User: Fold this.
Amino acid sequence: MYGINEIMKILPHRYPFLLVDRIVELEPDKRIVGLKNVTINEQFFQGHFPEAPVMPGVLIIESMAQVAGVLIYRNMPNRGSKLIYFTGIENAKFRRPVVPGDQVRIEMELLNRRSNFGKMAGRATVEGKLVAEATVLFAIAERPAK
Assistant:
């Protein structure tokens, strides 16, 4: 549905912090499914952990938020002047490690949205097995002036 070039037109994130590679399903204002391909070349594996590389849980949550961000940003008027911020993370649970070679499938569902605030529930899986789940809260704000 969206490859990396389309995602980069929507999200403000860039390497090394762009953590979504493809959007494979999208129901506007309802749900979105994205993929993150995890490779040994990821910058964080240099220190987490050199002999036993594991993707940090916080970056799995960030990739979930970025997939959610594609859903929120995609039809936003003047999205270049806006930023979406985390305002909370609820019920985060990590079930198994994510390692180089894994493809993480991220499913995010919009629970509610009011004006510039919202809440989305998500699950991350690898080969159909749950690796993480969380509810993320967000706020949309004006991008600070340069």
